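The material for today's practical consists of a large collection of protein records. An example says more than a description, so a record of this kind follows:
***
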Amino acid sequence: MLERANGDQAFRDWLFAKDTRRAVSDALSKAGYEPVRNPAAKEGQWRIDDKRQTIYGKRTKERSYLLIAAEVLAKRGIKAAMDDGLAKAKAAKAEAEAKERLL
């Protein structure tokens, strides 16, 4: 989602708007994601870029993996995660295009 938010301003605005938080939570739940609670925080949220935020992870992933990924995101910040996600998306697209050329 961060990859899409990085390139689509309207989606980014909707995703981060305060009045759509419940809709975002419901949409993520329907898509197979759940909140990854911070065991060190009373309310379960993570401090990212000096704000308390909820991190969601895919339900099919192991809990330990989700906690490690959430800790890394919290330490690095959203911008770094978005930059990483965009770079991975570009690399995957380039790889898919290279495979297409081979066919």
Summary: The chain has one domain: 2-98. The chain has five helices and four strands.
